[in-house]
Amino acid sequence: MKTLYKNCFLPLSGGEAFCVEAGRFVPCLPPYGAERDLGGAAVLPAFLDAHSHILAYALSLLQADGAGCTTAEAYAARAEAFLKAHRLPLNALVTVKNADAFPNADALDAVPLPLHLQARSGHAGMFNAAARERLRISRAGVLEESEYLAAARRVPMPDDGEILSAFRAAQEDYLRGGICLAQEGYLSREMFPVYRMLCEKGALRLEIAAYPAPDAYDDAVRRFKGAQKFFIGGMKIFLDGSPQQKTAFLREPYLGGGYGTPTMTEAETADACRFAAARKAQLLAHCNGDGAAERFLSALAALSEKDRRSIRPVLIHGQIVGDDQLARARTLGVTVSFFPAHIRYWGEAHLRQLGETRAKRISPAGSALRLGVPFTLHQDAPVCAPRPLEAAACAVLRKTQTGRQFSGQEIGVRAALLALTEGAAAQYGMRRRGRIAVGMQADFLITDDPFAQPPAALETLPVRAVYARGERIYP
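User: That's the sequence. What structure does it adopt?
Assistant: Structure tokens below.
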């Protein structure tokens, strides 16, 4: 049925009406099977999630929240309140997310309840003595990067019923943010049975693009061939850690010394690029620091232009990259996906660790725009909630939580919205998505005019409805 949507405003494409038929935008030519008056609302392309971890976000809804805690006693109190609220056994292992400051290790060991504290970044954590004994983890204290991730894998998955419930709630949050396609930014082998279960139970309301590591890629493609709303988008590698933990790999040292921690050698990075090219699979590379970015760009430069085009490389995060590297990224056909909420939540930490000059240019979307580098914006859920408009606001405003301005790399509202829509579609290689235009897939959301209010109000725009292929999927 051909449906005309009228009395609306299309801020990114212009016009006051559009028409949908068979899941596509079509010319506004009668006769119409139905007409819908949108009462002057604004209509944007629905957002495509440029980078997040939707299953981890779902699991985070089953975890206690440790935001603001600093002492072992405070973390224990949050964990106990969580157990009581969810009517769980009082000796159950509790993961406490959003740990911004780790407590004294001996004090945490004195807590009899098994506790797993996870840094907000997801790159570090602690297990107290009771948790270490239960999970057979040998080392006490704060664990970082690969050592922490290996220990965290020992934490048992919730049962299928809990996962189903949490995943439904997670999808609702993504949809509430205006997202019609979500990303599983690192599909580990441990996740295979979870996603098989979710697919078999028809639990997916959103499309999900998943990115396993190279050594799991072939198996993932076989296992999920033909899955509904779930597809293998390519593969993912990690070249460093996070600037919060001072493990992002830099070309120049942190204040106080140290260059961070590269997690792949030059040879391993080159092998991963060749592996992706041999399969014509998209390659995402986690690179927070400019040292990691340099390693990735150099590996890409060794490929033929044809091979680079076949893997549509994406540099994920790009917190600390130079203009020289952005210019190389443009030449090499690399999309950079920025995480601008770092400015809001960790801007002060970056000032302490990087100094003013480097800290104030983190997530340099302004330079990318000036240099013509394709870029997107993301929230890296569960690190931040899946709210694309918050990412846009952070890229536009560039203010820390204390109100400090990181000037020089701002972008406008239009550029930020294009990064969430056209830019994200281009990152995925989806030529018929991300725009409201004849022939494109009819993915759109209904909201208020993003240009009719101050930029600070951008993230408060209400998402009233989300449509995918012309069908309303939210609410």
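The chain has two domains: 63-152, 161-434.
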